Amino acid sequence: MKTFLHPTRHRVRRRLGALRTAATAALVALGSLTALVTATEPARADTLICDQYGSTTIQGRYVVQNNRWGTSATQCVTATATGFELTRADGSVPTNGAPKSYPSVYNGCHYTNCSPGTNLPMRIDAIGSAPSAITYGYVGGAVYNASYDIWLDPTPRTDGVNRTEIMIWFHRTGPVQPIGSPTGTATVGGRAWEVWTGSNGTNDVISFVAPSAISSWNFDVMDFVDQAVSRGLAGPSWYLTSIQAGFEPWQNGAGLRVDSFSSAVHAGGTGPTDPDPGTPATACRVTYTPNVWPGGFTTDVKVANTGSAPVDGWRRRLRRPGGPGAHALLPARTCRTGAGGLPGAHPAHGGAAVDGLRPRPRASDRPRGAVGGGAVAVGVVARGA
Predict the structure, then answer these.
(1) CA-CA distance, 186 to 191, in Å (whole number)?
(2) What is the pLDDT of residues 233-264, one digit of tens each?
(3) Cα-flanking dihedrals φ and ψ of residue 70, to 5°?
(4) Catalytic residue list contains 194
(5) Is 165 a catalytic residue?
């Protein structure tokens, strides 16, 4: 969430590091491997994110982001199977100014980072409903708000700041208050809210502030979008670009949690191809086996579908930490194992990418699907500079 003007974010790709000791290279080989599937069980252990704008995918369809945009103090989030926890929140900022950050989970697009399989942006007048559900976990000894961010823009943009921001304040502690000034009250989604409107100099903001803490709620995001349209802050031909849930901490905040989050956007009110937001999708199981020598390493990455239905649209990605550069990604190999297997399947590079070093896979090399019990093993070989 970015209710205050702040510097443009630059995503800087770090140069590939020289491969050092066996232990270090093994960690490098792990990096971050993402698989998009629709299986039936969580795929991996909790993921710690401390990079300023670091992110990861959960449930196969949402993005958890650290989003530490307003402070240089250390902040870390731990992404869980269904949400995240703010596990470190150092430092503080004045409570009459911008917050430290907006650690959050979202459906849609945020600064070109779109959640897997999202159908956002979507025109407002093409949306029938947008059911969402949230469960928050609060702490004492901190100053923060717990809020949804709903972003609207006249264009289907996936980057930068949108024209209008809707905030739903589920809870707040301390003297913090929304942008602008109070302009009345409204009943939205069957609840009473104090309404604030204003501008942060970059975009318009309308905030709905709960009179007391809400820990869990199922609601339709479009009830709040309709409020923005009726107040002239958006038009029916505008686009809904993202739905986000998280926290704005000003002081401390460690231990704050989003225990669960779901969001779906149904076109025309039916949404026949959208997943039920109350039934989270999950990812596949990923294992790896590194083999390290001075100046290089290989790693075998095995991706297994734990469900019984075919899986399409998944990808694998290897992300490495910074350092002085590797200069080659050698040919890797894709193969099937297990009953049914994951087709994909000519010996080739496997489509793996390491910070911009991307082999040139043929169309036949791209994974296409999987059935329960099957797996694909992908070898990745890097050579140090």
Answers:
(1) 8
(2) 999 999 999 999 999 999 999 999 999 999 99
(3) -115, 10
(4) no
(5) yes
